[in-house]
């Protein structure tokens, strides 16, 4: 079996307004869905991506305003990589400088990266690649010719790198290179497809603000997801039952390097309960929470999507 690459990445962050200001206001992503954590409805669940939240473009957040700071380390996605069009990095250098964000330039596998942290401490990087269509979403000064297309991929910090590497091969990613402390894998999709595994274990990560909770991989539909469920179980991993997340179905398992993996279906997507023009503008609740809407809205902190340019 082969996954096309990353479906989404989910992280824990701080105040919702700060989170929205950074990912919409600074990075120019679209807030495609505003809902709640289905397991904790007093907490928002935000989805940011391209104009419709295509798989491979979606970063999602649980914002907890007063939660403790986490620590990035083994058992987590260490760095989330975004891909931009060729020639766009100078724009992003200027933009990061404009918003007083410290960044550094680095090179890996012959590619130039801009590395920086978000407002709550998540490690991010930008890389230019030809692959992947330009985003149709434009916001503030971020126009389509420089906008983030989606994920370039991720850097995985594993407590057992060799085990994580084996699993990526099992999931159909091809090992394409080794450089320094990194082993590179590539999936068949055109975004969210390049995964680097850090080969030297470090300190164990601690879940909290500024850390990735899980990384989700793509299944093309419900039928293939059930095949994945059996396939993963056959390879010795304890995998959950299918869980309905409204916009996709999900199964979860923790790989041997302690990173929480999910396999999520591409359909039905984020357009099932909002028109294109209104995506992300209203609080969407799953049916079981709709009777408690007023109570939930009273608990959630208000915020707005702001043009910071």
TrEMBL record:
Oxidoreductase recorded as keyword: yes
Q: Which InterPro entries match?
A: Extradiol_RC_dioxygenase, Glyas_Bleomycin-R_OHBP_Dase, Glyas_Fos-R_dOase_dom, VOC_core
Pfam families with a match to the protein in the record = Glyoxalase (PF00903)
State any single GO MF term: dioxygenase activity
Give the residues annotated as coiled coil: none
Q: Which residues form the signal peptide?
A: none
- Pinpoint the VOC domain residues: 5-129, 150-266
Name the source's superkingdom.
Answer: Bacteria
Q: Which Gene3D superfamilies match?
A: 2,3-Dihydroxybiphenyl 1,2-Dioxygenase, domain 1 (3.10.180.10)
Tagged with keyword Mitochondrion: no
Sorted UniProt keywords: Dioxygenase, Oxidoreductase
Protein's name according to its UniProt entry: Ring-cleaving dioxygenase
Q: Source species, please?
A: Bacillus timonensis
High-level lineage: Bacteria, Bacillati, Bacillota, Bacilli, Bacillales
């Amino acid at each position: 079996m082969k996954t096309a690459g990353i479906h989404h990445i989910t992280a824990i962050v701080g105040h919702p307004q700060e989170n929205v200001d950074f990912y919409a206001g600074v990075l120019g992503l679209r807030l495609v869905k505003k809902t709640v954590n289905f397991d904790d409805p007093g907490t928002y669940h935000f989805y940011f991506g391209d104009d419709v939240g295509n798989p491979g473009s979606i970063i999602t957040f649980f914002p907890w305003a007063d939660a403790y700071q986490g620590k990035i380390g083994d058992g987590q996605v260490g760095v989330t990589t975004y891909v931009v069009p060729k020639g766009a990095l100078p724009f992003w250098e200027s933009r990061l400088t404009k918003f007083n964000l410290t960044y550094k330039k680095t090179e890996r596998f012959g590619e130039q990266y801009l590395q920086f942290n978000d407002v709550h401490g998540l490690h991010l990087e930008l890389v230019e690649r030809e692959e992947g269509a330009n985003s149709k979403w434009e916001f503030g000064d971020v126009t389509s010719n420089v906008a983030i297309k989606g994920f370039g991929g991720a850097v995985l910090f594993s407590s057992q790198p060799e085990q994580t590497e084996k699993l990526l091969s099992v999931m159909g990613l091809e090992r394409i290179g080794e450089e320094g402390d990194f082993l590179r894998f590539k999936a068949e999709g055109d975004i969210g497809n390049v995964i680097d595994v850090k080969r030297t274990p470090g300190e164990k990560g601690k879940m909290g603000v500024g850390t990735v909770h899980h990384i989700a991989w793509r299944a093309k539909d419900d039928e293939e997801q059930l095949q994945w469920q059996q396939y993963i179980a056959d390879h010795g991993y304890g995998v959950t039952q299918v869980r309905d997340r409204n916009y996709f179905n999900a199964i979860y398992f923790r790989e041997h390097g302690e990173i929480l993996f999910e396999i999520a279906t591409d359909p039905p997507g984020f357009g099932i309960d909002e028109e294109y023009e209104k995506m992300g503008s209203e609080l969407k609740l799953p049916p079981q929470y709709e009777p408690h809407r007023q109570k939930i809205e009273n608990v959630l902190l208000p915020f707005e999507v702001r043009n910071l340019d």
